[in-house]
Prior knowledge:
Helix content: 25-40%
CATH superfamily of the largest domain: Dihydrodipicolinate Reductase, domain 2
CATH architecture of the largest domain: 2-Layer Sandwich
Distance between the termini: 37 Å
Amino acid sequence: MVVVGTGNIAIKHTKIIKRLLPDKKITLFNYRNKRIDNSVMRLYDYVVEDSELIEVNKKNSFVVIASPASMHVEHAINFTDKGFHLFIEKPLSINTNRLKKFFNMIKTRDTCLYIAYNLNFLNGVQQLKKMIKGKEYGEVTHSNIYAYSNFINWRKNKKFKKTVTSSSSLGGGAVSELSHELDYALDIFGKPYQILSTFSKSNDYNLDIDTKSSIRFLYRKKTVNIYLDILSDIEKRICYIYFDDLEAQLDINKNSIILLKNGKIIKKYSYNQTVEDTYFDQMKYFISYMTKKNNDNNLSDITYLPKIINRLRYNA
Length: 316
C-alpha cells in the first residue's frame, strides 16, 4: 500500500487506513524528496523517493494519490502500470492532458478507480437525494449552493502563499479546491445542458488564482446556482433547494436539514455524523468496493467533472 503526498490530506487518509487496516504496511512515496517531520515519518513503514523502488503490485493493494492536482494523472499512470488500485484525492485533474492515455490503461486492466469526493457520504446530502427522487414535495424549481471559506486559515502550519491552493499551476483556486460542491450538485441533479460562469480574482494578495466563482447549471425545468469563495470573511456551506411545495436548507458544516413552508420551519433533520466522519466512510467504502473486484468504473461520469473544471479554469 502506497501514499503519494505529504500534505494534510495525505496524512488524514493515512491515519484512516491505519484504523481500517492496522496490519497493512504503508509506503510513503516522497516524490519531491522533501524534508519530512518525524511525526509524519512515524506513520509509515517505508519511505522511498524513487518510484522504481516500489514493486509491482501482486496483491490486492492500492495507492492513495494526494499530490497536487496537476500531478494526479502522472502519478495515476505510473501506479496503474504497477498494478495498483487507485484512490485519488479530488479533483482527478485540472486539465484533460493525458486523460485519454490514463483511461485506456484503466480499461485494459482490472483496476479500481475512485475519486475522493467525501461529501457524497454526508447523511444530509443523501437525504436530499431521497427527497428529490421521491418527489414528496414536488419538483425542484431551483437551487442555490454556497461554499464560502478563507483558505488562509486552512493550514495553520504553513504560509498560505506556499500552499497548493494559492498556485494556479498546481491546481489551486476556488473552482478546483471547492469542486466538492460541483460534484454533489451533479450527483443530486444530474448533468446540465448548459453551464454559465463568472470569476474574479483578489487584488489583495497578488494571487494568480480565481478566488471567487459564480457558476450556473441550466436544466430544462430548473436552475442550479453555485457560489464559491475562498477568501471570504464568513464560513458558509449551505445548499438551498426550492421545491414546488417548500424550501429545504442543508447546512453542510452542521450536517442538518430544515424544511420551511411559508417561511416557517416544519421539519428538521439532524445527524451525529460530521464532515470529518465522511473521510472515514468513503475510505471504508473504497476498500470494500476494491476487494469485491467488481471494478465497473464509469469512465464517462468520472471524466465529466474534470472536463468542466478544465473549461471553467480556462475561462477564469
